[in-house]
Structures are given as C-alpha cells and as structure tokens.
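hi got a favour to ask and not much time before my train. below you get a single protein, a line of residues and a line of whole numbers that encode the local backbone shape. could you go over both lines and see whether the tokens make sense for that sequence. a few lines back from you is plenty, here it is:
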Amino acid sequence: MTLAAVMERGEAGTAREARPEPMRRCIASGASAPRRRLLRFVLSPEGMVTPDLAARLPGRGAWLQPSADAIADAVKKKLFNRAFSAPAGVPGDLAALVERLLVQRMVDTLGLARRAGQAVMGAEKAAAFAASDRARVLLLASDAGADAKRRAPQGLAPIETLTAEEIGRAFGRDRAVHAAVAAGDLARRLVDDSFRLAGLRPARTDE
C-alpha cells in the first residue's frame, strides 16, 4: 500500500527503527507479519472467538491475515480450536463482524483526531492542512466520484477504505468525501486499520 510506505518513511519509521517490531504468525497461512497488520482473536470466558482489534484483551491470542479468505479458512478448518487448545465457538459471519468493528474503530479514531484539532474535512480545508505540512494522512471516500477525486489534495497518498457516510459520521455530518489528519499516533492507527480493512473490503472499480 502506497500510504503505508509513506508512513514508514516518515515519523513512524524512526520510532519503529529504534526497536524490533513485534511479529506474529497467521494461523491460516503460517506467514509472519507485523502484529499491527494482523487481526488478533481471543477466546471469551463463554468459549466464543472474539475479535481483539486493539490487541489488548488478556489471554492467548490467535492471529490472522486481514482477509475474508483467511477467516473463512480458520473457521472451516477449525484452526481456532487448535490455536486455543479448546473448543471455540465462532459468531456467524465473523468476517463481516470484523469489518464492522474496524470501520467503527476508524470512525472513532478520526473523531478523536477531529476533537483534538488534528483532523479537518472538506477538499479546501484538507488542501490547506496539507500545504501547512501538518497533514500526514488524506482520507478520500471510497465512493467518491471522479470530480471529487480530481479535487483531492496532492502530495498525500490517500486512504480509500471508508465511504463518504463513514467519514462524515466522524465529523457529525451526513457525508464527507475528503479529510486530512495530522502526523502522530492517530494517523498511524488509521493507516494500520485501513490496511486491515482493505483486506476485508473489495476494491471499487467504478468511477
């Protein structure tokens, strides 16, 4: 993802170069990846597989690549039972549940950035924010039209995983096509969550 590469070269890179990044292994593919780019699941006290997007819940974790196929494989092959060494109940349509939770997490993060004065919405405000060198992340609605895409501020690789309704929700509006977020922890969280959400949402090919 282009945006991820931009973030790795920016202020996020220096902090992460100072210490090794935690890696985890996907229980479906066996491939290792940075934990911030994987999905963590834990087993609830009731024995249900529970998404842990912030990777903070106690107990043994099972990690998966962020894709509907990986989740489907884990369910079909009963990989959660093996990972937890216990019977593991799975909620219906686990991939859809994870998608909804990721969307809400991104909306909440964007709303937090707005309240902290670290995010603005609208093409003109986003462009001014970017021109001031404060902006690190540009959000462009996944359902934006061709004209809206042309008006997007230049120089920032866009996140295009949230819809206009979802971006607008963070700003208390019905819709918002453009938003810009200042450099910092909230911007990094949006990048990582967008990477994970992209694996669960098919890319739009229409204009």
